[in-house]
Amino acid sequence: MTSEPERLFSYGTLRLPQVQRETFGAELPTSPDALAGWRIRMLRITDPDVLALSGEAEHPILERTGDPADRVEGAVLELTAAQLAAADAYEVDDYERVAVELASGVGAWVYVGR
């Protein structure tokens, strides 16, 4: 018996193949999608492990606007519960994981500004 995969909407570094390989042990199945009513701002990351893995000091972070004209493009990653826990460990404390409905109607987790 196999369980349904978790879905995680990524609009940033978790879409990068090298970050996926290091964080999840493999590149994950993904499909393009979008999130309406949100916008991206940039966040300076200081966690040395995240900096080493992503190679980027500025990471995007979501802010809810509630305006349907605001739209963030990204990808849905299909992952196991263990891989979702690894994503939680990867994200710094400035992010929290919340459930959202994407433009496609699919339900997914996403990391947003705390």
Short description:
The chain has 114 residues and is an alpha+beta fold. The protein is built from 3 helices and 7 strands; from the N terminus they run βαββαββαββ.
Structure description:
This protein is α+β, with helices and mostly antiparallel strands and 114 residues long. The chain has a single domain (6-113), classed as Roll (Hypothetical upf0131 protein ytfp), CATH 3.10.490.10. It contains 3 helices and 7 strands. The protein has helices at residues 17-24, 48-54, 81-90; strands at residues 6-10, 30-36, 38-44, 58-64, 71-79, 95-101, 107-113. The longest helix has 10 residues, at 81-90.
Q: What is the CATH class?
A: Alpha Beta
Under CATH, the topology can be stated as Hypothetical upf0131 protein ytfp
Residues in helices, as a percent range: 10-25%
Ends: how far apart?
36 Å
SSE series: EHEEHEEHEE
- Give the CATH H-level superfamily: Gamma-glutamyl cyclotransferase-like
Radius of gyration: 14 Å
Structural class: alpha+beta
As laid out across the biggest beta sheet, the strand order is 2-5-1-7-6
How many structurally independent domains?
1
How big a fraction of the residues is strand? 35-45%
Biggest β-sheet, characterized? 5 strands, mixed
From the spread of the alpha carbons, the general shape counts as globular
Uncertain residue ranges: none
- How large is the count of helical segments? 3
What is the averaged pLDDT score? Answer: 90
Number of strands: 7
Q: What's the CATH architecture?
A: Roll
